[in-house]
Amino acid sequence: MTSQISLSRLFITLSGLLLVSGTVIAQRATMSSDKSEFGPVVSAYLGYLSNEQEVVDDRASRREITALYYRRNSNRIRALRQMAIRLARQSGNDYVPELEAVAVDEFGTLFEKPPKPTSFRANEIIANKFRFLAVVHSAEPFYLFVRLDPYEQAELMSRQKTEAVSLSAGPAAASGQGVGQTTTTRPRRAAPK
Fold first, then answer.
1. Mean pLDDT, range 97-105, rounded to an integer
2. 48-83 pLDDT per residue, tens
């Protein structure tokens, strides 16, 4: 009886290892063909994602991480990969922005007050820090964002500040006068001589 249990455990373990190694081999074959299609920057990013997958695979083989953690990170890497390839193909540029892929339960890692993802629109700026790209379904939905660089953030905040000032100024700003420069006295009327 115990030998049957140990044999079944061995069979399950070997099946899992075979499945993981088959997946890794298929991903590497796909990754190497994708790298030749793109320039050095996109290829380097795809190589980085490949290395990240190897680290996750290695940690899983040593049983340092749970199966849930392994699946979540493998799916995240796959989602980042899909978006990087999509952006590179759409733009035709050898450039990958700083991408973030999070599941709904991870929104707290990016946002102080997590927004509701059902209201997101493509290219919408969220919290003055991220631009929402799309939802990528990689066994589970991941929300992909581009982190705005500091210059974009500063420009966005200054634009919002000037819009707020012009809205609060009311009709004085619409007539070309600055805030606080409204005339309080009526100009004198010149009488004909």
1. 94
2. 999 999 999 999 999 999 999 999 999 999 999 999
| Residue where one domain finishes, among candidates 95, 129, 151 | 95
Residue 56 in contact with residue 20, Cβ under 8 Å? no
Residue 167, C-beta contacts closer than 8 angstroms, at least 6 positions apart? none
- Which DSSP string corresponds to 11-70? HHHHHHHHHHHHHHHHHHHHHHHHHHHS-HHHHHHHHHHHHHHHHHHHHHHTT-S-HHHH
pLDDT in tens, 160-185: 788 777 777 655 544 555 555 555 55
| CA–CA distance, 18 with 24 (Å, rounded to integer) | 10
Side-by-side strand order, sheet with 99-102 = 99-102, 141-147, 130-137, 125-126
Average pLDDT along the chain: 80
Domain boundary among 55, 71, 95: 95
How far, rounded to the nearest angstrom, does the alpha carbon of residue 40 sit from its chain's CA centroid?
21
Q: Do 19 and 77 have their domain in common?
A: yes
d(CA 10, CA 183): 89
